[in-house]
Amino acid sequence: MKITTKQYAQALFEAVIDKTESEIKPLIVRFVKILYEAHLLNKAKEIGEKFVEIFEKRQGELSVTLTSAHAFSEELNKEIISYVKRKSGRNNIELKENVDANILGGFILQYDNKIIEASTKKELIKMRNALKK
Amino acid sequence: MSSMKDYIIEQLKAQIADFKMEIKEQNVGRVLKVSDGIALISGLSEVMMSEILLFKSKGEEVVGVALNLEEEIVGSIILGDYSLIKEGDEVVCTKRILEVPVGDSLVGRVVNPLGEALDGKGQIKAEKYYPVEKIAPGVITRESVRQPVQTGIKAVDAMIPIGRGQRELIIGDRQLGKTALAIDAIINQKGQNMKCIYVAIGQKESKVANIVAKLEEAGAMAYTTIVLAGASCPASLLYIAPYAGCAIAEYFLDKGEDVLIVYDDLSKHAVAYREISLLLKRAPGREAYPGDVFYLHSRLLERACKLSKEYGGGSITALPIIETQAGDVSAYIPTNVISITDGQIYLEPTLFYQGNRPAVNAGLSVSRVGSSAQIKAMKKVAGKMRLEAAQYRELAAFAQFGSDLDEETRIKLERGKRLYEIFKQDQYAPLSVANQVIIYYALINGLTDNIPVEKIREFEKGLNNYAELNNEAVALINEKKDLDPEVEEKIVKLVNDYKSTLDYLIV
């Protein structure tokens, strides 16, 4: 059976977890060798992405993208983080803030493959559609 | 003027005040790959099977359906213009299983499998939405078939009777009149308390336009809906078309009405499904069809049913059509569908080219449940008539060898010839069951023996016109639905009266 990139990432994760830095180095070299022998070096980037995903999941980490028309205050951000914590059950939330004036107001929150869209722009579009009817 | 302005502003204010802001958490994914009407999507971790997906690309929204749920990837078919979708586009789950608008407003319309109007008569206002895929009614809710569907085709109504709730396959090569048979059956449902649905799968749109025109001319569009997935539609639409048609039928079923649904044709449906399956990388099997083509058709045809009184008493009668290649009924799809249905009407090229139209092969066609649905009068004449037909077939082959035949054989042969003349019927000219009983009664009792074979059709036409003028016999059959001495007497009198006006009788 073909080994998927996800399985490689999983294997790498299990190999390196709880190891010290000096132990990890030879492991990485061996892993790259295995990839080379399996002609899978071109998949290295994908495996890397999957590895980050698995790592974050295990560590209870989660990266969240917040898009808003103007930067939010610290307090508001904290509230959003606590909301995501409650929803996702992860503890270490990493918040990436984006400012995009195009959405006019409100915010768009993205994490995992969820999206919460509360932008003024979208609501206006919805209102326009409702009025058309 | 200003009051008008105020009124409009008031209305707008009220509407805006009514508008509720709603924030929902949505499940999103990204398009990994689009090709030939299918898309592979990453993400969408909570997607359901056959859930509607919205592809958002540059302000346009395209609808898709999730079909393959894998660990990392979701495979979906696209039900719209897939050239709008690009790699990396956002896809949103809608938490709705694929559904079609249903309701009385669909009657008399031509719609696509998504319930959008194709006939230019304006948008369809749906009362309800029904899921396209639905589990068929269970045993408890069902009842055995007992009411007839009068197709108006003499050969079918007598020998291969169809009951309400039955599934009767129409099978044959191209150009033998399979569609014509089904259309005649639809036309004959006028005043029979039936809703009809014609599902065109992969048909030429010109052909469908002809059918619509013909149905309109015959006044049949008053109770007919046409679901059209033409030859130019993507395979995804062809695939859902019969299920959508069935969902529309189920709305009437739930109202306790009787529905006749024609799937024209399921071979093209299987081909469309094969295309989708192969693109989704499902393993090919026999004739490159995927492993679940049997289920594809069985789950569709199981939805045809006759419900018991407690469940509304409605019915869905299905007439699936299969096109064979060079008469090969043992190909994969024909054998599958033959085994699913409750019988088949087999159309044969040799009969067709001999001029026996409809070219129904009486020997190979069967109806497994329909005979219990025939009216008694028809049952009585059809029993003898079937025997007559079988004897004729046997003798005709035998009689080719010798010319010296005894009297009895000669009579059988002569009568058989007349019977096969009676089986001939023009297109779009369905005949009521009472008229059918009269002509068959006349035949099996030897009343037509002294009419020349080549004059039989003329005689029949005349007899029907005559019966219309002196409608005692017809009215009596329609009322009693049985053949008692009184009715028989009336029929004999009618036929003899008419015969006395003729000048071409054999003396």
Q: Main traits of this protein?
A:
heterodimer; A: about 130 residues; 2 domains; four-stranded mixed β-sheet; 5 helices; 4 strands; B: about 500 residues; alpha/beta; Elongation Factor Tu (Ef-tu), domain 3; Rossmann fold; Lysin; nine-stranded mixed β-sheet; six-stranded antiparallel β-barrel; 15 helices; 19 strands
Question: How many distinct folded domains of chain B?
Answer: 3
What is the strand tally of chain B? Answer: 19
Strand content of the residues of chain A, in percent? Answer: 15-25%
Largest sheet descriptor of chain A: 4 strands, mixed
List the topology elements:
The complex is a heterodimer of chains A (133) and B (507).
Chain A: H1 5-16, H2 21-37, H3 44-58, E1 61-68, H4 74-88, E2 92-99, E3 106-111, E4 114-119, H5 120-132
Parallel strand pairs in A: 1-2
Antiparallel strand pairs in A: 1-3, 3-4
Helix pairs in contact in A: 1-3
Chain B: H1 2-18, E1 25-35, E2 38-43, E3 51-57, E4 60-69, E5 73-78, E6 90-97, E7 99-102, E8 110-111, E9 128-131, E10 148-149, H2 154-159, E11 162-163, E12 169-172, H3 178-187, E13 194-201, H4 205-217, E14 224-229, H5 235-254, E15 258-264, H6 266-279, H7 293-301, E16 305-306, E17 315-323, H8 332-340, E18 343-346, H9 349-354, E19 366-367, H10 376-399, H11 407-423, H12 433-444, H13 456-469, H14 472-480, H15 485-499
Parallel strand pairs in B: 8-14, 12-17, 12-18, 13-14, 13-15, 15-17
Antiparallel strand pairs in B: 1-2, 1-6, 2-5, 3-4, 3-6, 4-5, 7-9, 10-11, 16-17, 18-19
